[in-house]
Amino acid sequence: MSDRAPAGQFLDAAIDLLRRVRDEEADAIAAAGTLLADTVEQGGRLFAFGAGHSSLAAQDLVYRAGGLALMNLLAVPGVVGVDVMPAPLGSALERVDGLAAAVLDNSPLRAGDALLIISLSGRNALPVEMALHARALGVKVIGVTSVAYASETTSRHASGTYLKDHCDLVLDSKIAVGDAELTHDQVPAPFAPASTVVTSALLQAVMATAATTLAERGVEPPLLRSGNVDGGHDWNARVMEQYGDRIFYRH
Fold it and tell me: How far apart are CA 223 and CA 211, in angstroms?
């Protein structure tokens, strides 16, 4: 570790990752935003899923001021966030075969919809199976993952494959295996994860692309406004009424 303050080192590392994503994933971001715009325009619905801390980036897209009202959270009991007790149970459920198929078969997802699957490692059974099963249902899948894990870790799915192998589009977060940006001579483990910062920014770049693409096609993007600005609640009520059949988080 250098003499520089750790806060500055971490922020610099996050900025460097964001620059890499901006420069190296530009085409993939554009394609993902276009896919979402196509889905909205064609009457499809939007869903996002992530397990554990990857769920934070998924939840950041749902019922979000400045975000697309049509983005719904695909919730898998016990793995959305870190509120499950005991916490290690969430990690264990990610490795259970059959769970993703059961969730999808009992979800509103149907052919013509789009699903964002966020998994940093992309190696566990849950995201791999979810991508496989969703595509079999006719759902377009965008995977958000660190591609490095596929070459530096072993898959935990029976097929030996990773999330990235079963997607219509892949967005690479560039996060190093282990998700820790800093080290210190007196600290026994690497620390300071950046995956949430980078993945959330990457996904908001996709959402910005989708909204702009719709507008350029003459379609008003179904955006939500902050409820803390004057007129925000009335605006959101109008959007939710117009697209009520594609919004599931209010039922």
Answer: 8
Token pair 């697309």 is at which residue? 68
- Strand 187-191 to 182-184 pairing: antiparallel
Task: Tell me which amino acid residue 59 is.
Answer: Q
Torsion angle, CA of 166/167/170/173, rounded to 10 degrees? Answer: -60
- The Cα 201–Cα 228 span in angstroms is 23
Tens of pLDDT along 25-51?
A: 999 999 999 999 999 999 999 999 998
pLDDT at 39: 98
Q: Structure tokens of 209?
A: 């692309």
**Torsion region of 174: left, alpha or beta (phi above 0 gives left; psi -120 to 50 gives alpha):** left
Per DSSP, the residues of 33-93 read: HHHHHHHHHTT--EEEEE-BTHHHHHHTTSS-TTSBTTEEE---TTTBSS-SSSTHHHHHH
**pTM for the predicted model, two decimal places:** 0.93
Amino acid sitting at position 24: E
Q: Which of 44, 118, 125 is nearest to 74 (CA)?
A: 118
Tens-place pLDDT, residues 64-76: 999 999 999 998 8
DSSP-derived secondary structure letter, 251: -
pLDDT band at 158 (very low <50, low <70, confident <90, very high): confident
Q: In the structure encoding, which two tokens stand for residue 186, read together?
A: 């007196």
| Residue owning tokens 């117009």 | 242
Does residue 61 come out as left (phi exceeding 0), alpha (psi in the -120 to 50 range) or beta? alpha
